[in-house]
Design goal:
Layout lengths: L14 E4 L1 H14 L4 H16 L10 H9 L10 E5 L3 E5 L5 H19 L1 E9 L6 H9 L3 E6 L6 E2 L6 E3 L3 E6 L7 E6 L5 H9 L9 E2 L5 E2 L7 E2 L5 H13 L16 H4 L1 E8 L7 H16 L15 H13 L1 E4 H13 L8
Parallel strand pairs: 3-4
Antiparallel strand pairs: 1-14, 2-3, 4-13, 5-8, 5-13, 6-7, 8-9, 10-11, 10-12
């Protein structure tokens, strides 16, 4: 019986290890050199490394060269001024003014948490932003504050087929839920609305791995397992993923005046991105001790279930990433050699050497 739970692509022969703290400090220096304020550069670096240590490299430092390129092309303003469109005790709308998505998103979730602590729930929507990285990075801010958190984001043009069609109709929106726990890893569900994120497709391409069947279609609308041939992804669980993608685009789109993906045609950084954040303070809804007791006992019983073949144990969503993050913050983050090479090239271009041997 196999005793290793299925996980992200790994091959030590194709990887190099970078220390999390050194990577974070290097990212801050790069972003400051590109014109960002130090405190906002630190927000970005924290969110990027949060993604890397959880194994979500595509939404961590692997995305950094694209962000720098977007700054150079004028599509990301490194010193964008975030403005408040509206603000009430329970909700707000912020305008990111095309700055780094990680900055306005961090501020938006912190504001949602503040409102939740005051009135029970807090909702903050963001317009005119840019790519914000990993959705889980923001729900973890809520979890760390003792709140339940939700986050979703928009992308550009459609890349996920409509259920019942071979043509793209919705975006591969990410969304995440996070629930705090007293004495165990928090529940963190972070997923794309397609069978996989585009980042996972990219990762499998880097490692020379085929895609599982049922993930993707090629340019002719035919099923493919070749990550280099993918044109369109299939929605997760058919109609369910299609519906989730549509709803995520509503919350991070028309709700703040933006368009749905099917009406977006340009480069993602020209189109920009919108986000949605929601925080719930459990203490305002009932007995917090009972909340944690009942959640904890259910979680413990689930973890005690016998694992199926191919799994070492039963975990709740987010536990595998929690275990990985704890380990990689100490041991270092293994990244693919092409990922490492891109960071070294970026560092050379800005005359700030990457902390990679």
């Amino acid at each position: 019986m196999t005793t290793t739970t299925p996980d992200i692509p790994r091959d030590a022969s194709q990887e190099v290890v970078v220390q999390a703290a050194a990577l974070r400090d290097w990212i801050v220096k790069l972003l400051v050199k590109k014109g960002m304020f130090a405190v906002e550069a630190e927000m970005c670096a924290d969110r990027l490394v949060d993604a890397d240590v959880r194994g979500i490299h595509s939404h961590g430092s692997r995305a950094l060269p694209r962000y720098i390129k977007a700054m150079d092309e004028g599509n990301i303003d490194p010193r964008a001024s975030i403005t408040t469109v509206c603000d009430t005790p329970a909700m707000a709308v912020l305008d990111g003014n095309k700055g780094m998505g990680h900055v306005v998103s961090t501020k938006a979730m912190l504001l949602a948490i503040k409102k939740a602590k005051e009135v029970g729930t807090g909702t903050v929507a963001v317009s005119r932003s840019q790519h914000y990285g990993a959705a889980s990075a923001y729900v973890m801010l809520a979890v760390n504050a003792g709140c339940i958190g939700y986050s979703t984001t928009s992308t550009a043009y459609p890349t996920v087929a409509a259920y019942g069609s071979q043509q793209a109709a919705v975006a591969n929106n990410a969304f995440a839920w996070g629930v705090p726990s007293l004495d165990a890893p928090p529940f963190v569900l972070d997923m794309a609305c397609a069978e996989a994120s585009w980042g996972k497709v990219e990762s499998r391409k880097l490692y020379g791995l085929p895609l599982p069947e049922g993930w993707a279609l090629d340019e002719q609308g035919q099923p493919t397992t070749d990550p280099k041939a993918v044109k369109t992804l299939l929605p997760a669980s058919g109609a369910r993923g299609f519906g989730l993608a549509f709803m995520c685009s509503v919350l991070a789109g028309p709700l703040v005046g933006s368009r749905m993906p099917i009406h977006k045609k340009r480069d993602p950084y020209l189109e920009g991105s919108e986000h949605f954040f929601y925080a719930i303070d459990p203490t305002k809804f009932g007995d917090i001790e009972k909340f944690h007791s009942r959640l904890g006992s259910a979680s413990t019983e689930i973890r005690a279930l016998a694992p199926a073949e191919g799994f070492d144990k039963v975990r709740l969503p987010g536990e595998l990433e929690w275990e990985r993050a704890a380990r990689w913050r100490v041991e270092g983050i293994p990244i693919h050699r092409d990922h490492a090479a891109a960071l070294k090239t970026l560092g050379e271009s800005l005359k700030i050497a990457a902390p990679i041997e």
